[in-house]
Amino acid sequence: MRPDGWVDVPLAPFATVDRSTLRWLRTGETTPEFTLLAGESAVATMRWHQPHGARAVAETADGSFTLGRGGFLVPHLTARRAGSDAPVARLTNRLSHHELEVGGGGVYRLKRAGLLVPAWTLTAANGETVHLEPATDGHRIEGGAIIGTTSIAPGELMIVLLLCWYLIVLLWIEDEAIEALVPFEGPDAPARLGRGA
Predict the structure, then answer these.
(1) Any idea what DSSP says for residue 72?
(2) Euclidean distance between CA atoms 162 and 168, whole angstroms
(3) How far apart are CA 181 and CA 127, in angstroms?
(4) Which whole-number Å values give the CA distances from 179 to 41, 45, 166, 185, in the listed order?
(5) What residues have CB less than 8 Å from 3, skipping those under 6 apart?
(6) I want to staple 108 with a disulfide (CB 3.0 to 4.6 A). Which of 35, 61, 100, 155 is the partner?
(7) Residue 190 lies in a domain
(8) Mode of pairing for the β-strands spanning 87-93 and 41-48
(9) 21 domain-assigned
């Protein structure tokens, strides 16, 4: 166990496992923490620094990645190898979708599968698709399934899945924060401080 309380899980190299059955499981209670499983083998972990923050760290058998959000006019997410300032991948918000670029690799399009379902579809340049379906329990994201086989190289697929899951959890955290504010809006909102009775 590390000083921060995060338990190290032995991670299998992504290239050595069966990638036909992938799923994220929530392994942290207060602070979001997830483990990516290929069958029964753990292949990656992702942990947020703070319960409602944007920074996260992902661990794989091939190394660690820092995940962060940036940009004002063009919001984007990046994955950087630990100790490096150069992004290995960038996910950029476009009007109708997200575009994911992997350095030295492919370009992918990520978008919601529909308005009423929380599922997402990742499409590679060659038309192959992978579906990401978050699993929820009330207002809490518990994990998700990754459905679809692909010819994407294992190293690139790992980076792509890390950034996609990072985006999905960030959006879920933001949605929960907005829902928590709803009772403070409208005619039934509690009286504001300084306002007379």
Answers:
(1) S
(2) 10
(3) 40
(4) 35, 27, 20, 11
(5) none
(6) 100
(7) no
(8) unpaired
(9) yes
Closest CA to 54 of 74, 72, 31: 31
Please name the residue that has the structure tokens 């009775």.
Answer: 197
| Residue pLDDT, tens place only, 26-37 | 998 888 899 999
Domain, as residue range, for 137: 14-182
Token pair belonging to 118: 């929380």
Let me know if residue 7 belongs to a domain.
no
DSSP-derived secondary structure letter, 151: -
Number of residues that this document lists for the chain: 197
Alpha carbons 51 and 82: distance in angstroms, whole number:
21
Using the structure block, give the residue that is written with the tokens 């992978």.
130
Residue 161 banded pLDDT, cuts 50, 70, 90: very high
Q: How far apart are CA 42 and CA 64, in angstroms?
A: 15
135 and 146 in contact (C-beta within 8 Å)?
Answer: no
- Tokens 């990645």 sit on residue: 65
Is 99 contained in some domain?
yes
pLDDT, tens digit, for every residue of 68-107? Answer: 998 877 789 999 999 999 999 999 988 788 999 999 788 9
Q: Work out how many domains the chain is built from and give that number.
A: 1
Amino acid identity of residue 8, one-letter, is D
This prediction's pTM: 0.83
